[in-house]
Description:
The structure is a homodimer.
Chain A: E1 5-10, H1 16-30, E2 34-39, H2 43-47, H3 56-65, E3 67-70, H4 84-92, E4 94-102, E5 116-122, E6 132-134, E7 139-147, H5 148-164, E8 169-174, H6 182-194, E9 201-206, H7 207-216, E10 223-226, H8 228-242, E11 249-254, E12 258-262, H9 279-291, H10 295-310, E13 313-314, E14 326-327, H11 330-339, E15 381-391, H12 397-405, E16 412-419, E17 422-425, E18 437-444, H13 454-466, E19 470-480, E20 483-484
Parallel strand pairs in A: 1-2, 1-3, 3-12, 5-10, 8-9, 8-10, 13-14
Antiparallel strand pairs in A: 4-5, 4-11, 6-7, 11-12, 15-18, 15-19, 16-17, 16-18, 19-20
Helix pairs in contact in A: 1-9, 1-11, 5-6, 7-8, 9-10, 10-11
Amino acid sequence: MAQNTPITVAHGDGIGPEIMEATLHILKEAGARLDIETIEIGERVYLAGNSAGIEPGAFDSLRRTKVFLKAPITTPQGGGYKSLNVTVRKTFGLYANVRPCVSYHPFVRTKHPVMDVVIVRENEEDVYGGIEYRQTNQVTQCLKLISRPGTEKICRYAFEYARANGRRKVTCFTKDNIMKITDGLFHKVFDEVAAGYPDIENEHWIVDIGAAKLSDTPENFDVVVLPNLYGDVLSDVAAQIAGSVGLAGSANIGETIAMFEAIHGSAPRRAGQNVANPSGLLLGAVMMLVHIGQGDIAARVHNAWLRTLESGVHTYDVFDSAASKEKVGTREFAEAVVSRLGQQPELLKAVSYKSGGDGGSGGGSSFAGSGTAAAPQQVTKQAVGVDLYLDWAQGTANDLGAAVAGLDGDGLKLSSIANRGVKVFPGGHTETFCSDHWRCRFVGAAGEGASVTHAQIAGLLARAAAAGFDYIKIENLYNFDGQPGYSHAKE
Amino acid sequence: MAQNTPITVAHGDGIGPEIMEATLHILKEAGARLDIETIEIGERVYLAGNSAGIEPGAFDSLRRTKVFLKAPITTPQGGGYKSLNVTVRKTFGLYANVRPCVSYHPFVRTKHPVMDVVIVRENEEDVYGGIEYRQTNQVTQCLKLISRPGTEKICRYAFEYARANGRRKVTCFTKDNIMKITDGLFHKVFDEVAAGYPDIENEHWIVDIGAAKLSDTPENFDVVVLPNLYGDVLSDVAAQIAGSVGLAGSANIGETIAMFEAIHGSAPRRAGQNVANPSGLLLGAVMMLVHIGQGDIAARVHNAWLRTLESGVHTYDVFDSAASKEKVGTREFAEAVVSRLGQQPELLKAVSYKSGGDGGSGGGSSFAGSGTAAAPQQVTKQAVGVDLYLDWAQGTANDLGAAVAGLDGDGLKLSSIANRGVKVFPGGHTETFCSDHWRCRFVGAAGEGASVTHAQIAGLLARAAAAGFDYIKIENLYNFDGQPGYSHAKE
């Protein structure tokens, strides 16, 4: 007989305790093999003076069980309270946000009757590091970072998820026609990972066209894997147009720890009235069961829930006199699901999930330890120059070109100047608007591609400082295996 | 009597000449006051050896007339041909891309029968500078730049457009809850500009929620102004869900020069058959007429076109046996519009535009010279530290902390280390995944906020070089008017 899997459960605030009770009741009746540790998070913890809303001891439980089923919480009004989700995500490196966006036509109103899309969003990189600098009077900068191991992890997760959940296709969106180095890396790694999953179809779209297709004909998509920013925007678009925001669960997956929840909030005004819909949390729990290898139980719960939805037994939020038959409360809805355990939906599509051989080999965790953060490939890295960025507002591009050429020397020479990515010296156009934020590219005196040293770069900065330039930043230029690892300005 | 306005016209490739002829015929019959200069662009120019597809002499015409009505062109297969639109945009600083996305229910099929949204996309900044660097074995970087003058121009254009086109509301989307400095600047400047237009309603949404609402209930939006990346994605989403990609025109607006076109391509297979739909280019020409202050003529053309569409006189691409009455060719469609000049639509909403007092005071150009690129505000800028980024893969965050502390000296000291935006030293979490891309923050020895000099920063680099560190970049830390102009890592 299969062993129980330990999980950590938090009952949360507002409607949290009611929907968690309903969810756990259904899981138990369905035969889920769970050992539950309960922790306290949320409002009372915040108000007791813990700015993260979760006690250090609770982290120990998460480290022990590695699986967190979380009800919604209430963050108190006023400053100084940190987002609990951000804290958990950052602490445990939850790199994947997974959100199924499904329409339940004709039982829930939607403009897109055929839609069953899962958004897999990279959750740690891109512009969400929030690494920002105001550099001049006029110009601010945010760093977008895309890493190979971060991209490998999210792409591999998307394909593993597709396999465990009986999905047939994974689509990737990037803007690699413009961002050839960062989004280009994401696309390249996606292709590499996809090659290891010949049983799963794969495709790539430029994000603008892909987003247009996703929002117009979502029926053509299955699993979609995205860098953080595109995923943020398009997971909200997909959930909204499916019409099922109140019924959706989501997962946040890390290499060792994963968290499952509803996407809605704690709705304090509905608390304690036995009216809340437990479906979002229940579908989060279904994802959890698949993750821990209990796909058989997950399918049993999910199909009974679908059968309940289509028999017209609805909580108030979904109730619609045209499509519903019986308006019920939280507990009665849970009983309705329990009474249908073992049934399949008749109109909606039934689900099936793969079951793992043990308690921890589901959609997310089995591959995490096996080379996901790939051993670095051996590459040859050669410094070939530096971009010296200046805050300067004393004239034209040609004026600056003349002034900066005076910094040449010690094996470095100025090759070009750009402003906001457009080359303005030598040979710029007079119509180009120039901000006070200039990029001066220095390369080896022998020409582009010749080696330069870090000491030469430090020397250039010393000369720039002595000449009174306000250099605001530098970016070194490297070749990797002989190929430039930097972009050229547009002419 | 009003003077004629000189414009530059290019007839383009494929269906271009036919739809341009139809468009110019309608404009003439409507009484547009134009002096036309014709230039050649596109396939023949490319194949004659001009890699930009436009001859230097043609630029002179654009500089003279400042208004460009452009038919679609064909870029030859094979490498080395530069995008003509990118060349024109970069050369003349066309900072605004304007795309009306309108549904014409019940005459053109759409899931969103009530939709009349104009996307105003910033077109020069954000991640589209394509300023990218591969910095380590694992990590790539793209710079996102948002400037105050760039943001002022686009926001002001959006409100001027709203006024000239009889629009009531301008909505802004940003992600300033995460990107407080860059997107925060965009939002702040939007609010500042909005205050100067009390006759126009304004609102701001976080881009994820805003995108979800736009794609689900576009009827709630009017003019939407967006930073470049969000605008790229959401202008395609909006055009697609309106169902009218083949009927849409767009404008690219600069401080001195503006370009108007259809959003579709040159469709070579349809060329020379008198079947193509001239509507996209015609609606581009309508935007041009408003821009040059001939709003009366623009409305006359646009309303006659709407009346034609709803009378069921349709070209093949729109023809649908349920909604159409007569399938016509390009010339016949143009005649059908001409014969309805002076008529208003009966079911669709009629348009009205403001007319300028002279030939150049329409939606885009009148304000361009009057302080758009605002004189820099006086701010006090103080260097207070530097982020030294290292490529390093020799141990843990604590190991690196010990090694880097050896660079302290000459008035600088290490304050913290972060990896991908998460603080990892001192006091990090063991679960945080660390790439080979580290940010070491140095501040003045007297503590955060104390002044440091550029010479001190150059000295730090010299010590790092001598110690054998591969520093990959630096970002200086500045206070502006005493407030930090840089973000702190998440703990």
